[in-house]
Design goal:
The structure is a homodimer. The first copy, chain A, is an alpha+beta fold. The first copy, chain A, is built from 10 helices and 12 strands. Chain A has 2 domains: 3-136, 60s Ribosomal Protein L30, Chain: A; 151-297, PurM-like C-terminal domain (Phosphoribosyl-aminoimidazole Synthetase, Chain A, domain 2), CATH 3.90.650. The first copy, chain A, has helices spanning 3-10, 58-74, 94-111, 160-169, 176-183, 189-195, 209-220, 235-244, 248-252, 268-277; strands at 20-22, 29-31, 37-47, 79-89, 114-122, 126-136, 151-155, 201-204, 223-227, 259-263, 282-289, 293-297. The relative contact order of chain A is 0.16. Chains A and B meet through β2, β3, β4, β5 and β6 of A and β2, β3, β4, β5 and β6 of B.
Chain lengths: 309, 309
């Protein structure tokens, strides 16, 4: 099977988006942007042995590759539209490719994002997706808008993916729900879009709450105080924390793909409605302060956020 | 050195393009598109051991990573504007990174393309660049516009990169000029932009002339006749062909990054001027025909284009 057959077989399907003039199969893809909008673009790579283990299914790898990029676009308050896929494969494994392709196509359909181009090469398994979204001019939700007095919020529960990873690393068997949180994260697509009118800054929690919130604080030139007791935690992880008195997992565990954001006081009332309309829990965990740095109340033990190197 | 220090140190430099609202350092980058233009996007991966050898310099790897993407955008008749870089590195090697960064920045400056985002991960060396260009609505140069009677053209000389690769594979020492053609290809940026008003179809020669021209023919539902004697070949390669009576290298050697394009008869006169203004040789090697398939006059020996798998 040559590269072109492979692309035709596994990575070409009809594009329904009329703004795409040319998809997979030329030197480059072509698309239009509605007037009054800006392009938002992000790229994320998943590498075997780093972002997923050799035993992770092709279905989950495809899901996560797309989800982490959808999450970045959501964290900008933007609507995801298109993506390119650069995949390096050690060999042609048709059943693996079929499972990967089916999963990618299914999730693409669900979020209405179109695969418009890519590259397939031989090499150690590496999946790089570059995603494009659109947002109205000046409406993007960046990391730089947090102001003293804004509430600090997170969506969903924090630390589940990290807890699952901790269990796997310690020879324990995670529940299916915990495995799903690690391998099949749900990007907060609707919430991100809705937040662009309420939040002052936003980031997705991919490297750990402490580290990611600190990015907002540094970029916005502010500080914050959060309380560990207020962080929304699943029951199982809460049990583990009570046993060990260690909050490292929710503070430093990555891969949650929840949103962490700040909201001005006068918009906090409106925020409550978003939680219902987007069907996701939102929890206030602290407040933005003028004095720099992140102060964490309730835990001062050692902790270390995820480092890539 | 953590990921964020690495990005700050090696992959962040001032962006001069006013259409970029937000560059490296948020969840995603933000840019605007001038009215009346479409976005053109392409992605290309370079993997160690496949696209370059372990002995290739960081300078050349950076150059080639950018050049192959610039070449794809040029082949669309579009102006390259921005790119994202996803790089997987086996380890932090500061001198390697500095050399890679310097080379990338230098070439980016030369072609006025801005690095607006990316991802750095740990893994087998893999460089994936996704590039964005712009082209006036309906002006993109695709593979589908070739018509019977159009001339078939190529830029520069064909087969030099393949000849260099052949020499290396056979224990021979290529000249510096030959190594440059393989490791530091010159994307035909100016020519691609100029061709959008003259050519009916265009592709860049990355997988071999025979294979790449065939893509144009299939997509345009036409055929072509070309003559090997007309293909522009460097003197050294011509000597090799005379010795071996084998035209495989210019027909099937990849990595030339010259443009192959078709031009309607009434525009062939205007084309000659382009050659001068873009300072690149352009050679007519055949003609588009109604009968399908690619007919190659002057050589009917066995040949095999590059296959990725």
């Amino acid at each position: 099977m040559n590269e072109f057959d492979l692309i035709r077989e596994y990575f070409t399907w009809p594009i329904k988006d009329p703004s795409v003039t040319l998809g997979v199969g030329d030197d480059a893809a072509l698309f239009s942007l509605e007037q009054g909008y800006q392009l938002v673009t992000t790229t994320d790579t998943l590498v075997e042995g780093v972002h997923f283990s050799a035993s992770t299914s092709a279905k989950d790898i495809a899901h996560k590759s797309l989800a982490v990029n959808l999450s970045d676009i959501a964290a900008m308050g933007a609507k995801a539209k298109y993506y390119t896929l650069a995949i390096a494969l050690p060999k042609i494994d048709k059943s693996w490719l079929q499972e990967f392709s089916d999963s990618l196509r299914q999730l693409s359909g669900h979020y209405q994002v179109s695969l418009i181009g890519g590259d397939t090469t031989r090499g150690a398994l590496n999946i790089t997706i570059t995603m494009f979204g659109m947002v109205k001019n000046s409406k993007a939700l960046t990391r730089s808008g947090a102001r003293p007095g804004d509430g600090v919020y997170v969506s969903g529960t924090i630390g589940d993916a990290g807890f699952c990873f901790w269990k796997l690393s310690n020879g324990l068997i995670p529940s299916n729900q915990e495995l799903k949180r690690l391998n099949c994260p749900t990007p907060r697509v609707e919430l991100g879009l809705a937040l662009k009118n309420q939040a002052s800054a936003c980031i997705d929690v991919s490297d750990g709450l402490e580290q990611d919130l600190s990015h907002i604080l540094k970029t916005s030139s502010v500080g914050a105080v959060i309380e560990v007791e207020k962080i929304p935690i699943s029951e199982a992880l809460l049990g583990h924390i009570k046993d060990t008195n260690d909050w490292s997992i929710p503070l430093c565990g990555g891969d949650d793909y929840e949103l962490c954001f700040t909201v001005p006081e006068d918009k906090e009332e409106a925020l409550k409605k978003l939680s219902e309309s987007c069907n996701v829990n939102i929890t206030r965990i602290g407040v933005v302060t003028e004095s720099l740095g992140l102060q964490i109340k309730g835990f001062d033990g050692p902790r270390k956020s995820y480092q890539h190197f």
